[in-house]
């Protein structure tokens, strides 16, 4: 994998878990990139604290800030579009980013979507992703869609302070994936020197196995050295147990329906796209826990 001339890759969400990992990989490959962030204080840096080589930084407070997005995308050949925050205007934010890419002369967009994205998906946020995918397809841009499963890290955040995962997932299975595997795939797709190799392609990015939340809890319990378990809730109980959170209703719906989507079997499909695109097996949840203990240190008591 080598640098593609002076093509500029605009990496949105560059300060987030996925964007930072991608930016570091692109820098290691010598790619020229523009890091699009909301906060200059959170620019990705090398381990020694220095700025990434062959990169510059643009600030956009949101995808809806058209002028800021046009400046951020000026001269960029491709945009890596990280899905936005789980807010009621999320779809319009995504549309705004895609429209800005068209107006700025960007040729190609690689978008992080979600497995099972569909208009009638159980998981409400998967519906948002489907709407975004449709807008991207109609934009006239070259596009690639990376449909990520739930992230391994997300499973660790399901654990409450009392060591219990609660939700209406029943005995459904989830083929969760690591941020690092997705970043490796994105790097391969963005820097592939074969012309149009990934145009109009949709990849499902999953782990190598699908596990139940009870199995995930048992694995975390063993490694964390404390009791962690899964407790099934009804949908009504799930909404009631989350009613104290001061967040929009749409966000709570996203939380609850993520469990419901697991119960419905929408997240159980295991794909080999990670291994095909990066040349090695995807990392399992257990392996990820073992490899990155700092990422779930909050589970230790």
From TrEMBL:
Residues 7-236 form the NmrA-like domain. Signal peptide: none annotated. This is SDR family NAD(P)-dependent oxidoreductase. Pfam families: NmrA. It comes from the Bacteria. InterPro entries: NAD(P)-bd_dom_sf, NmrA-like, NmrA-type_oxidoreductase. PANTHER family: NMRA-LIKE DOMAIN-CONTAINING PROTEIN (PTHR47129:SF1), QUINONE OXIDOREDUCTASE 2 (PTHR47129). Coiled coil: none annotated.
């Amino acid at each position: 994998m080598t640098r593609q001339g002076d093509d500029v890759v605009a990496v949105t969400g560059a300060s987030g878990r996925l964007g930072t990992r991608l930016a570091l990989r692109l820098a290691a490959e010598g790619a020229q990139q523009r890091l699009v962030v909301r906060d200059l204080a959170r620019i990705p840096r090398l381990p020694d604290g220095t700025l990434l080589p062959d990169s510059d930084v643009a600030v956009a407070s949101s995808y809806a800030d058209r002028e800021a997005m046009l400046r951020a995308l000026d001269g960029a050949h491709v945009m890596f579009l990280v899905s936005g925050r789980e807010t009621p205007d999320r779809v319009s934010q995504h549309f705004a980013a895609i429209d800005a890419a068209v107006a700025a002369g960007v040729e190609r967009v690689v978008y992080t979507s979600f497995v099972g994205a569909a208009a009638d998906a159980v998981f409400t946020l998967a519906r948002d992703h489907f709407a975004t995918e449709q807008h991207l397809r109609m934009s006239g841009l070259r596009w690639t869609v990376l449909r990520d499963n739930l992230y391994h890290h997300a499973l660790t955040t399901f654990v409450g302070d009392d060591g219990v995962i609660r939700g209406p997932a029943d005995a459904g299975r989830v083929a969760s994936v690591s941020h690092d595997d997705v970043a490796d795939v994105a790097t391969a797709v963005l820097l592939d020197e074969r012309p149009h190799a990934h145009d109009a392609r949709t990849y499902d990015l999953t782990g190598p196995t699908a596990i139940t939340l009870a199995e995930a809890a048992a694995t975390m319990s063993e490694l964390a050295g404390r009791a962690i378990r899964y407790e099934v809730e009804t949908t009504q109980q799930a909404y009631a147990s989350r009613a104290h959170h001061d967040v929009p209703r749409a966000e709570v719906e996203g939380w609850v329906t993520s469990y419901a989507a697991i119960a419905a079997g929408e997240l159980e499909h295991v794909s080999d796209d990670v291994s095909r695109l990066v040349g090695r097996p995807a990392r399992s949840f257990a392996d990820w826990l073992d490899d990155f203990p700092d990422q779930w240190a909050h589970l230790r008591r």
